[in-house]
Amino acid sequence: MPQWLEKLKHKVEQAKAAAESAGTQDVAHERFNDEFSHQVAWTPLKPGGSSFGTHYLITPESGGRTLMFKATKGGLAFGLVFLLVGLGILCGMIWQIMRGESWQLLFIGLFVGLPFSVAGIYLVRWLTKPRIFDLVSREFYAGFKRPDRHQKDTITDLNRVRALQLMTETVRGNKGRYSSYELNLVLNDGNRVAVVDHGNYEQMLMDAEQLAKALHVPLWDNT
Questions:
Q1: CA distances from 31 to 69, 154, 159, 218 (A)
Q2: Ramachandran angles phi, psi of 103, nearest 5°
Q3: Cα 218 to Cα 211: distance, rounded to the nearest angstrom
Q4: Which of 21, 107, 131, 185 is deepest in the core (most CB within 10 A)?
């Protein structure tokens, strides 16, 4: 095998080992006092995550029976920046073309502005989509309205929730590594359902404790 190919293979193996190492973490099962925690996966359900808080839990007022995760102002601003930058580039290029500049500017706008705009639209839509816990119907779903009956896969029966899982993920960003925290529902068959994932630990822990109390299930905090 050529030497350059050997080096490439070695680097690939190193990267694979590093990824596997990053995806595993020590789990303090003894803290949970539940053997079922050994049957649940402790790798990130949604790899990645922001370095700042993107969502917070709104608890019901007196007599209310609905809990909801909504976007923070900072998270929403982050998505809007992408959208506005993209739209600004596109509008600027179109304006220049209308003034008689080269049509080549249109391609610059499409290749630069369009990706920013699409990313911004996706981020804003993802951030503003509420995560709903209906304590009356005992259902969890993400969306502005309850999914139709034929979309049962998008609705989680809260009676099946065995525990809440809170875990840390080390994410590699452009400026180094940072910690993101993931909150999942653990179902009675061992499967998990993602709720939120962001980098504000204090907010995440407070919300997880409130949610666990409302659902009457334990919080498996492995942060």
A1: 27, 31, 23, 11
A2: -70, -10
A3: 10
A4: 185
Give the H/E segment covering residue 8.
helix 3-23
Q: pLDDT digits over 115-166, tens only?
A: 878 888 888 888 889 999 999 999 999 998 888 766 777 899 999 999 999 9
Q: Are 113 and 104 in contact (CB under 8 A)?
A: no
Contact of 169 with 194, CB cutoff 8 Å: no
Q: What per-residue confidence (pLDDT) applies to 184?
A: 98
Cross-sheet strand order for the sheet of 139-142: 55-58, 66-71, 131-134, 139-142, 156-157
Does residue 120 sit in helix, strand or coil? helix
- d(C-alpha 182, C-alpha 197), whole Å: 4
Look-up of token digits 């990645």: 48
* b (16+ CB within 10 A) / e for 45-55: beeebbbebbb
